[in-house]
Amino acid sequence: KVPRKATIFPDVTVKITGEILTVESSNKESAGQTTINIEKACRRPGFDTRVFADGIWMIQRAGKDIK
């Protein structure tokens, strides 16, 4: 409903394929920080932050599936 803004580091590539958002970089710290910035931009207080974040379902983190 509301456009969100997140800082994406210069050496990070963010791809959107349908409903899947992929963050790739050769620098693990930059990729992680960009992912955190996207998660913070989509944060909704009072909701379960482990899996659902404002229309974004987290299905994988650090190469491991989230159940």
Describe, in plain words, how this protein is organized in 3D.
The structure is a single chain. With 67 residues, the chain is an alpha+beta fold. It is 21% helix and 30% strand. It is built from one helix and six strands. It has one helix at residues 28-41, and strands at 12-17, 20-25, 52-53, 56-57, 60-61, 64-65. A two-stranded antiparallel ribbon has the order 1-2. A hairpin with a 2-residue loop joins β1 (12-17) and β2. The termini are far apart.
Number of helical segments with 4 or more residues: 1
Shape: globular
Please outline the major beta sheet: 2 strands, antiparallel
As a percent range, the share of helical residues equals: 10-25%
As laid out across the biggest beta sheet, the strand order is 1-2
Beta strand count: 6
Which stretches are low in confidence, meaning pLDDT under 50 for 5 or more residues running?
none
Give the DSSP E fraction (strand runs of 2 or more residues): 25-35%
What oligomeric state do the depicted chains represent? Answer: single chain
End-to-end CA span = 27 Å
Structural class: alpha+beta
Helix-strand sequence = EEHEEEE
What's the Cα radius of gyration?
12 Å
Overall pLDDT level = 79
In a nutshell, what does this entry contain?
The chain is α+β, with helices and mostly antiparallel strands and 67 residues long. It is built from one helix and six strands, in the order ββαββββ.
